[in-house]
Amino acid sequence: MSERSDPPAKDPAILSPLGRDGSVWGVGDPLDRAGVRLRRYAPGDRVFEFGAPVDTVFELVQGCVVITTSGDPSRRVVDLVQPGRFFGFTAHARQRCAAVAATGAIVCCLNLAVARRNDRVAARIDREMRAEIDRLRAFAALVGRRAAIERIAGLFSAMVPDEAPAVVHLPVTRGEIADLLGLAVETVCRNLTKMKRDGLLIEEGGGIWRIADPSRLARLAAATR
Asked: pLDDT (tens digit, 9 = 90+) per residue, 125-138?
């Protein structure tokens, strides 16, 4: 595996994903010396394995990470992590899933034992855990919809950045999208073709999708039955 650990958290590239302004901890803070590492992963590298001890929480800084039911070839994709999200939360002592870099990825890794001794970082982790609960509730509502096209629109709409351009990086196969949304792969292919034909999506290759009409996509994603 091509994982590489960078210097501790005095590197601004490590400070920025946590504090955004570099102010999460100060000089001499124990977390500054030992609690945070920035790691780079090549596509296909494991961020953590199924069954790994839960001693670290992760924030994705760059790239895309897929969460799967296991690390074997029969894995099922259950989540897609985009930059800015924390992942690796579980109530168990060992991971019940695996995390795999779908692209080249940069991940900020926080040692939980050290992070808990820093009030500000512990509070940030708590906020992110609560945000994950909200996100998972929204996702449960999404996959509970009967219309496949609404599920697909919801997936893309949730990934559209707040600022222009409206481009989504979705480096997974149609089969993995089907796994994630609880659909047949043929259904995903048929609806993506329709959305491209209707001018909602433009597939640019390499997992890059341009959202041609973000407002219309959001309305489709918000449709209820």
From this structure: 899 999 988 988 88
